[in-house]
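agent> Task received from the user: take the single chain below, predict its 3D structure, and emit structure tokens. No templates, no multimer pairing.
agent> Plan: (1) validate residues, (2) run structure prediction, (3) serialize to tokens, (4) report one or two observations.
agent> Step 1 OK, no nonstandard residues flagged.
tool_call: predict_structure(input=
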Amino acid sequence: MQGIGLLLPLSIDSRHGVYSLITNYHDEIKQNFKNLVLTNPGERIMNPDFGAGIRRFLFENRADATHQIEKRLYEQVEKYMPYVVIENVFFDTTGSEAGNVDLIDRHTLSVQIIFSVPNMNFESTLVIDSEDMA
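)
tool_result: status=success, residues=134
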């Protein structure tokens, strides 16, 4: 089977040509969804609105950021990936109420997004942690 798209990050692989390729639609959708979530508006040439820009919220107040992130996710999916349905969005609040948690742990962000593609009978979960946003 020929590839559907490039596997990111780019890596050299001679099986399909010069670079590793994605060979199934489920992996392509997951990669495209992750790119939509992690891309900051203005990063994509000729499409300045593309991207949820989750990195922008890394140092924001958690209560404000979670609402803004969720709103931006739904808007971006509706506009750029309308075949995807966001089933649920969870924010890891570990450490936010615990008094004995290290200061760094209290200021990390972890987002779990459960999404599906009903026409393909496909469901997946994307987890983005603070480390992914660096």
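agent> Step 4: summary for the user.
The domain at 29-133 is CATH 3.10.450.40 (Nuclear Transport Factor 2; Chain: A,).
agent> Done.
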